[in-house]
Write the structure tokens for this entry.
Amino acid sequence: AALLPPPAGAGPDESRIGETGFTTDERGWIHAATITIAIADARGPLDVYTVQNIARHELGHAIGLDHSPDA
């Protein structure tokens, strides 16, 4: 499947196209991150620019950035 499964507690229509998970130590320092990026959504394959933007977004999460409250 190209789409990632919905997050826990989300409805079945809330699919994701990117996901970042990471492990931290007891002080909150990130030690490892795993990024998963879909190559298609419900409409079909994603273009290269969309995949690059998803990767950039997920890399931000991998270094500890959260979503902006301004978004």
